[in-house]
Design brief:
This protein has two domains: about 1-105; about 105-140. It has about 180 residues and is mainly alpha-helical. It has five helices and no strands. Helix 1 (about 1-40) runs antiparallel to helix 2, helix 2 packs antiparallel against helix 3 (about 110-135) and helix 2 crosses helix 4 (about 150-160). This is CHM1B protein. InterPro entries: Snf7_fam.
Length: about 180
Amino acid sequence: LTCAAEHLFNLKFAAKELNRNSKKCDKEEKAEKAKIKKAIQKGNMEVARIHAENAIRQKNQAINFLRMSARVDAVAARVQTAVTMGKVTKSMAGVVKSMDATLKSMNLEKISALMDKFEHQFETLDVQTQQMEDTMSNTTTLTTPQNQVDVLLQEMADEAGLDLNMELPQGQTGSVGTSVASAEQ
């Protein structure tokens, strides 16, 4: 059990480290978004695009760290269950020995007290098992759209109140061109 407890500690530590890395990536994503706004304001679209790509990469990295943290948490919950089961098994052996001695003397108060202790240990195990199942059910996968860079650039330009003169795919230039022309009028 000592080795399993040590592994449990290491797993929990790793999950916290992954969470920390996810938060760090979130901060870096926000910094990149600020750089996008500055580059757009200066009219430097190439630099803005590079910062947008970096922001998307940081966002995806944060999600990956968070996903891995959830998986490590799930493994930690399983190890916790194994450690708890080992303790319960050891306690049950002691309870069975005590029950044998108690049954021989037929002291009903001792039997009742031992059964209460036995039930309490199983309730604790049920709570931990439920926590592990909840952790496993909360892990999800995310997908990212293809045009994230362009969407992020447009969002940053909108927030900065600037007009973004980007090349749009064919078929969309006519409607955007007329709306820009009418906006200028």
